[in-house]
Structure prediction request, 195 residues.
Amino acid sequence: MTEATTRRQRLADAAITTLARAGMRGLTHRAVDGTAGVPTGTCSYYFRTRQALLQATVERLAEVDIADLAGRPAITGTGDPVRLAEAVADLIEQWTTAGRERMLARYELSLEATRRPELQAALVAAGGRHRAVAEKALTSVGVPDAASRAPMFVAFLDGIVFDRLAGAGAHRSDPEELRARLRDLLHSFARPPSP
Prediction:
């Protein structure tokens, strides 16, 4: 990995942190420099425009998420719905604790994307990678028509994460309850789709 690539990743990570802590209004090149602990002007050197910075941030979020998923083989190749439910529950726990900043930054970017079609396109591409992983996981546990069910599965998980971090009730089920709900969902997916 080149020094420029490492620097870009560090700046994108700093942008994620800045978004999570200060929101979209607080995301400036100067703020990212401060968060990254680099000289003023570094971020604007690597990412000339705000759009370039936002694009890099979306790409970095997707890269780190996919690395998280790759480090959890029970999610993509278990063949066992109970183990899959446990692995997904553990992932949700990770994303709502240690990975909290990434999720908050994603929400900021998602809202901004409703006003920026080019950012929306980047988020859709990143989301496609998540849905592909979900499809593979559902296929591994024998879910029929996993391709059409994967988006619903991802939406369910997104809803849980959102509720835990920003929902009005901030519902926080205990880990065993979450595992049970995920097992129920996977069981319902195992039935053939209704005509």
